[in-house]
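Journal club prep, notes for RB
We'll compare a predicted complex against what the paper describes. Inputs for the pyridoxal-5'-phosphate case:
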Amino acid sequence: MVVARQVEAVQRALGPFFEAVTRRPARPVIADFMAGNPQEPTLPGFVEALRRWSVPTSTDSFAYRPMHEPARQTAAASLTAELGMDFAAQDVFLTRGASGAIALALNTLVDPGDEVVFLSPPWFFYEAMILAGGARPVRVRLEPPDFDLDVDAIVAALGPRTRAVIVNTPHNPTGRIYPAAALERLADRLAEAAQRYGRPIWVISDEAYSRILFDGRSFPSPGLFHPYSMLAHTYSKSALAPGQRLGFLALAPGLPEAEVVRRALLSAGILMAPDAVMQYALPDIDGLLIDVAAIERRRDRMVAALRAQGYEVQIPEGTFYLLPRAPLADDRAFCAHLAKEGVAVLPGHVVELPGYFRISLTANDEMVDRALPIFAQAIERS
Ligand SMILES: Cc1ncc(COP(=O)(O)O)c(C=O)c1O
């Protein structure tokens, strides 16, 4: 065996993802709803920030260096404004996107044999990341059609080896924003379980879409209720430039033994920080936001059109995804049919939800124009 045995399990977990994204389209793609990728020009402010900060101002601009303090301060101030509780710069750890933040949390928290609970349908990398971190993934299913946060099911999955629960809100792929009351109940039950098992149970809160909110909604973070929380944030979604890899992990205010955890995070993350240019650019990028109103309009247009065609689809509260039921039980076959017509969507089985498919609303309006008649034909034929 030339590679680690553990990587086999990681590869197995990522199999459906690779299968979906590496399949060659039969035809040129005329409407790309597959991933949360930009299909419109990059925000001008983002381009300006990169231009500005890619010019070195001293010989050590691009030297090895500690995390850029102004970036940590900006991130802390913006979280404070967003969540209404005080975050300190020393509790912000810069990472390569939310995935870097989740990996840092796992590196810092789990030992071999620990269990990490995740909720299904999940973001497709959780299981692989938990395995790569050396822990055992424990899956808890959320039930359609609403995919509510099922606190009892989560509690039933806890045990003496549980180290953390990954909660993602706003939730990819269902678009749910979990209500404060459910998060509070979860926090209470985790505290009870921690008492029972003699060690804290962390929440790793994946808040990648915290700024992509619809209908004037606000975003309650699990960190408001559970002090043992690490919050994963990213600019991949708010600035929609995910290839540039910028985000951070923040400790919830009020964490007991915070200094021990800070030191551990600094060590575990010492080589995981974003490139210098991205760190310098963070204060400029933090203030940017894609046109969420345009995404909301696209959501409304597509939900109305798809429902009129006969598709079952819920209205997402946040994120930029729609999750319709496929008219065929075999979501692979249905998505292959759409792909033949040049419409790329993500088959539900990739997010552990066979019989569904996911549409990314980051597609542009012309793509929606081209795709709607093809969605209509596809449901008529099935
Ligand atoms: C729920 C969720 N978490 C994390 C990520 C990863 O974000 P990043 O690109 O910042 O690593 C994504 C990206 O698709 C996501 O949808």
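Talking point for the session: Residues 180-197 form the longest helix (18 residues).
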